[in-house]
Amino acid sequence: MRRKIQEIPKLNAIDRQMLTVLQDDARITALDLSKLVGISPTTVPERIRRMVRDGYILGFEARLNPAKLGAGFLVLVQVCLDPTQPGGYEHFRVAVRQHPEVMECHLVAGEFDVFLKIRTADVASYRAFLARVAPTLPGLRSIRSHVVLEPDRESPRVSIAAV
C-alpha cells in the first residue's frame, strides 16, 4: 500500500504580494494590506494564518539595532571540526546553541565545516568569549575569525520570486 504524501498548497500571486509587504512591515494592518494587494480585509488574517500553518511564515520579529544593545562587534567565524570525534557536528551544534552571542550556525561544505556569526560588544568581549567558550566546544579543531569592519548588506529577506 502506498502512502499518500501531503502536499503543501502553493502560493498564488496575492500570497506572494502579501509576503513581500509583510517582510517590509509585519505590523501593517489587515485593512492596509488588503488595499495594497487588492483583496477584502476580512480574508487577510485567514491567508496569513494559512501561510503560517503551511510553514511559509516562520514568525514575526522586530529587527533590533545591535550597536545600541551592546552587540555591535560582528565576527564571522570558520570552524574546522575533528573528523575523528564521535558525534561530530551534532554535539558541536548543541553546545553552540547554549551561547546567545552565536547568532547563526551553519554546517557547510568546503575548506571548513561550520560557519558561525557571532556578536559581542567589542574585541575584548569577543576575546573573552573565545577564551571561555572555545575549550568547551566538542570536536573543535581550529577556528578562523573574520572581523566585519562594515556590514554592507545584512537582510533576513527572502526573494519571493524564488518561492
Automatic annotation (TrEMBL):
An example molecular function term from Gene Ontology annotations: sequence-specific DNA binding
InterPro entries for this protein: AsnC-type_HTH_dom (IPR000485), Dimeric_a/b-barrel (IPR011008), Tscrpt_reg_AsnC-like (IPR019888), Tscrpt_reg_AsnC/Lrp_C (IPR019887), Tscrpt_reg_HTH_AsnC-type_CS (IPR019885), WH-like_DNA-bd_sf (IPR036388), WH_DNA-bd_sf (IPR036390)
Gene3D superfamilies, alphabetized: 3.30.70.920, Winged helix-like DNA-binding domain superfamily/Winged helix DNA-binding domain
Record's signal peptide: none
Domain HTH asnC-type positions: 11-72
Keywords: Activator, DNA-binding, Transcription, Transcription regulation
Keyword field contains Transcription regulation: yes
GO terms of biological process kind: response to amino acid
GO CC terms in record: cytosol
Pfam families hit by this protein: AsnC_trans_reg, HTH_24
Annotated coiled-coil segments of the chain: none
Protein name (database record): Leucine-responsive regulatory protein
